[in-house]
């Protein structure tokens, strides 16, 4: 094989590697985007289910006066909301407004997320 042929081959392989690198980058960005979107949808789904359960409880309460009192129910809902957010946070997902739904890189601590969890616990 002549030197010129080898040089041409090297050039070609180099170009193909660059293209491959670009494709991997694009795929990687897309995975991040889809993961964040999935996280946001999961959280919204939880919120929707919780709201539905709350509504059906209210309906039940209207029909049945024997159910637990309003303050107890409110406390229960707040605790479940806090537990739900804590679960997402523990899974490595931001629950704060700044980065809502995005992944916490290498499980970094986030003071905004922690603020939200703390404020729910104090009320
Ligand atoms: Zn956060």
UniProtKB/TrEMBL annotation:
Species name: Facklamia miroungae
UniProt region (Disordered), positions on chain: 56-81
According to the UniProt entry, which residue ranges have a biased composition of type Polar residues?
Answer: 65-81
**In its UniProt entry, what is this protein called?**
Regulator of replication initiation timing
InterPro entries for the chain: YabA
Is rRNA-binding found in the keyword set? no
> What is one Pfam family matched by this protein?
YabA
Coiled-coil intervals: 10-44
């Amino acid at each position: 094989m002549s030197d010129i042929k080898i040089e041409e081959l090297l050039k070609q392989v180099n170009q193909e590697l660059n293209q491959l690198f670009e494709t991997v980058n694009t795929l990687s960005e897309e995975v991040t985007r889809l993961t964040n979107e999935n996280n946001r949808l999961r959280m919204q789904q939880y919120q929707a289910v919780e709201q539905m359960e709350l509504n059906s409880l209210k309906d039940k309460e209207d029909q049945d006066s024997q159910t637990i009192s309003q303050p107890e129910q409110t406390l229960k809902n707040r605790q479940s909301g806090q537990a739900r957010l804590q679960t997402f946070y523990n899974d490595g997902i931001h629950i704060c407004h700044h980065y809502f739904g995005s992944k916490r890189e290498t499980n970094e601590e986030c003071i905004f997320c922690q603020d939200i969890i703390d404020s729910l616990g104090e009320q």
